[in-house]
Amino acid sequence: MYKLRHLCFALLSLGFAASTHADEKRFISDELITYIHSGPGNQYRIVGTLNAGEEVALLSVSEGNNYGQIRDTKGRTAWIPLDQLSDQPSLRAKVPALEQQVQTLTQQLNTIDAGWNQRTAEMQKKVTESDGNIQSLRDENQSLKDQLVVAKKKVDAVAVQLDDKQRAIIMQWFLYGGGVAGVGLVLGLLIPHLIPRRKKDNRWMN
Description:
The protein has 206 residues and is an alpha+beta fold.
């Protein structure tokens, strides 16, 4: 009777331990091949093998034997030592993922590098175009300055010519007026001598 109670208590403890560790994700450690057994111990028969890195589901744990009941990707249920399980993927399983990450990061870096080179080339092109526009504006400004200097010289020359014409016109008018006045003076002096005076009729005086 005492042995039966002890056996029931052990089974209840095993069931409680199994319920607290149900369906936890685990990975086979980096051993090349791991044997799985039909029960929680080496004394149980081997029912198969698992390769390193394979993912399994932890269904229950036998604390006394330090074994865990697992289910693999093929649907098989078996027991395996807990020290051959890991809560992290093995290095063998991580390598393809790491290689993929490296490839992805390399592609991203190449894309960033290509984009940066393109942006740099566009900025250099814009700077070159800006320098060309600035030089063009400078040349145009200098041309306008030269044209302004020439225009000022022309204006000064026209102003000088205008002053000369004004002086010539004034001189012509002065000469014309002096000539008219001289002719009038001469005629005023000559006409009385050229036209005989009429004798005064003094008959009415007698």
